[in-house]
């Protein structure tokens, strides 16, 4: 795994060196001895531009190293050359990093680009729609927030934590609209998932204090 990550990090440089080496062999000998160097060099360079180094970003995101993640993303100078599903993931990750930095306008712009390109998995699309809904709530655009979150639930979410978060957001939106019966229904769905994320658990405890006292 470490070797593979190292190869991803340096494959452009390695590819260039191999092609130069192929040129030297071609000049001093003939084409065929140089062909393997040309072939592997072209594959490595094409991989750099078509697939990018996104695999390297996972460890940074898991450890909360936003600067490290952003550095990897900023190393991609030509995102338009990325394979379309990977380009979508690239813009989504850019949006995630912007959210971590509280740049909500930049996050929304990047995530919209990712969604417009189409996500490689329905669950990933659902997670992006949920984030868009949360961004809309930050901007107090509640109508748009509800539309995004409902779409996220229809598309499907990657795990019960995200699903519970979506139901809690819908609960909040319904309470704001004074649709208390719907709010209680969404709250019950969130609680039934038994989420373990501390932030979501705290939200459930806070809502539980007063939701039983509201009508509906």
For the record, the CATH architecture of the largest domain stands as Alpha Horseshoe
CATH class of the largest domain: Mainly Alpha
Number of domains: 2
- Residue share in helix: over 70%
CATH superfamily of the largest domain: Tetratricopeptide repeat domain
Radius of gyration: 23 Å
Class by helix and strand content?
Answer: mainly alpha
What can be said about the biggest beta sheet? none
Tell me, rounded to a whole number, the average pLDDT: 91
Secondary-structure map:
Layout: H1 2-28, H2 31-51, H3 57-62, H4 66-74, H5 84-100, H6 104-117, H7 122-138, H8 142-155, H9 160-176, H10 180-192, H11 198-211
Structural write-up:
- The chain is an all-alpha fold and 216 residues long.
- It folds into 2 domains: 1-51; 55-211, Serine Threonine Protein Phosphatase 5, Tetratricopeptide repeat (Alpha Horseshoe), CATH 1.25.40.10.
- 78% of the residues lie in helices and 0% in strands.
- It has 11 helices and no strands.
- It has helices spanning 2-28, 31-51, 57-62, 66-74, 84-100, 104-117, 122-138, 142-155, 160-176, 180-192, 198-211.
- Helix 4 runs antiparallel to helix 5 and helix 9 (160-176) runs antiparallel to helix 10.
- The termini are far apart.
- The mean pLDDT is 91.
